[in-house]
Write a structure and sequence with these properties.
This protein is 40% helix and 17% strand. The protein has 15 helices and 17 strands. The strands form 5 sheets. It has a 7-stranded mixed sheet, sandwiched between helices. It is globular, with a radius of gyration of 22 Å. The mean pLDDT is 95. The structure holds 4'-deoxy-4'-aminopyridoxal-5'-phosphate. Its EC number is 2.8.1.7. Its cofactor is pyridoxal 5'-phosphate. It comes from Thalassotalea castellviae.
Length: 420
């Protein structure tokens, strides 16, 4: 993307023209949620204005239209993931619910006190706590994969942790703190040698890199729409059909049944058996337009602009002596976590906020990782394709000014640059 293309691309995101604390918004919190393009906002509105109806039920035109848009969104996700079947795509509220579904349905019915669940130190709480709940009830043990000094799962240690007792291996494709691609091929291959199932948390990967679940050969892959330019309240659970078919239902109620009587109930086939109640129809349909948007601009492919953002932000942060990045080496996506000795992350976050720069501070829902890295919390800067090198300059100048190593004049130059 050259600078004119970037200006045009940014025009798709109305919020980027908002002011925060009377400053131009610099949104560097894309790991938490991305901003939404106009087309996603418009699609959600169009559903409510033009064909609002419940899906899979009524015999009327609006319902048929809503059902068709809803199911074509499922096909869209199938193609995005290169899944074998559309019925391997289950709608959920988000990554968290997808993992809870697998934990409660597969975990509670397949794990015993002789079994082990393997996680990594870099997991988000959403990929830890549901397994702790299952472990408590079933007696299964949790084992944890360590990371190497670059912050990815240490492949040299996997065969020590994944053993014949391992029944499930869960890890993130890209950690929400480290920003690096985990060596999934090796981890999944190792899990297969002992017959363990695999669940990959793709929450940070899916908007940034191409994902092919058949090539990965994982059993489950989960993510949220809101981290990939889509609406909140929509998520995906991909599961291999044979694994999902063998799992008992999760929540029960309308939509997921075949027939109900007081002598017994029978359930639908996939995918509906896991989709109880009225789903987030507007959200799912709008999510589909977010996927089209991603394809239109090849946002999940390696591109020069994203590479430049990554290289430049890494280089600029590395040049500041006071900045300590949490892991060695450049991340694979433009997501950087760091601390500045002697300064509390919250103070830095507030200072940057006053400058109009949105970053995330704290433990990032990864407290075990903070402990592993011996830090109380950190500052996370996560960029998306609508960000610019000028925004990085402005952020770096603000950060330096906070630390006390730059002047107001430097910052003014950057503010002027941002306006152009
Ligand atoms: N896993 C990872 C790696 C994440 O980054 C997040 C969101 N920060 C989640 C899980 C949870 O996602 P959600 O809150 O959308 O369910």
């Amino acid at each position: 993307m050259n600078s004119i293309e970037l200006v045009n691309f940014r025009a798709n995101f109305p919020i980027l023209f908002e002011k925060v604390n009377e400053k131009a918004l610099v949104y560097f919190d894309n790991g938490a949620t991305t901003q939404k393009p106009e087309i996603v906002i418009k699609t959600e509105k169009e559903y409510y204005q033009q064909f609002n109806a419940n899906v899979h039920r009524a015999a009327h035109q609006l319902s048929a239209q809503a059902t068709s848009a809803f199911e074509s969104a499922r096909n869209n996700v199938q193609h995005l993931l290169h899944a074998r079947h559309a019925h391997e795509i289950i709608w959920t509220k988000g990554t968290t619910e997808s993992i809870n579904l697998v934990a409660q349905s597969w975990g509670m019915n397949n794990l015993t006190c002789d079994d082990e669940i393997v996680l990594s130190y870099a997991e988000h709480h959403a990929n830890i706590v549901p397994w702790q709940m299952v472990a408590e009830k079933t007696g299964a043990k949790i084992k944890v994969l360590p990371l190497d000094k670059t912050g990815i799962i240490d492949v040299d240690k996997i065969t020590r942790i994944i053993t014949k007792n391992t029944k499930l291996v869960c890890c993130s494709h890209i950690s929400n703190v480290i920003g690096k691609i985990n060596p999934l091929e090796k981890i999944i291959a190792c899990a297969k040698t002992v017959g363990a199932k695999t669940l990959i948390d793709g929450a940070q990967a899916i908007a940034n890199i191409p994902v092919n679940v058949q090539k990965l050969d994982c059993d489950f892959y989960v993510f949220s729409a809101h981290k990939m330019y889509g609406p909140t309240g929509v998520g995906v659970l991909y599961g291999k059909a044979e694994v999902l078919n063998a799992m008992p239902v999760y929540q029960t109620g309308g939509e997921m049944i075949k027939s109900v009587s007081f002598t017994g109930t029978s359930f639908h086939e996939l995918p509906f058996k896991f989709e109880a109640g009225t789903p987030n129809i507007a959200g799912v349909i709008a999510f589909s337009s977010a996927i089209d948007f991603i394809h239109q601009f090849a946002l999940n492919q390696a591109d020069e602009h994203k590479q430049n953002l990554n290289d430049y932000c890494y280089q600029q942060l590395s040049l500041i002596e006071e900045v300590q990045l949490l892991a060695e080496g450049k991340p694979d996506i433009p997501l950087f976590s760091f601390i500045i000795a002697g300064h509390h992350q919250k103070d830095i976050g507030s200072y940057l906020d006053a400058e109009g720069i949105a970053v995330r501070v704290g433990h990032h829902c990864a407290m075990p990782l903070m402990e592993f890295l011996s830090v109380p919390g950190c500052i996370r800067v996560s960029l998306a394709s609508y960000n610019s090198l000028a925004e990085i300059d402005y952020f770096i100048a603000s950060l330096k000014r906070y630390i006390g190593i730059t002047s107001d004049t430097d910052n003014m130059i950057c503010v002027d640059k941002l306006k152009t």
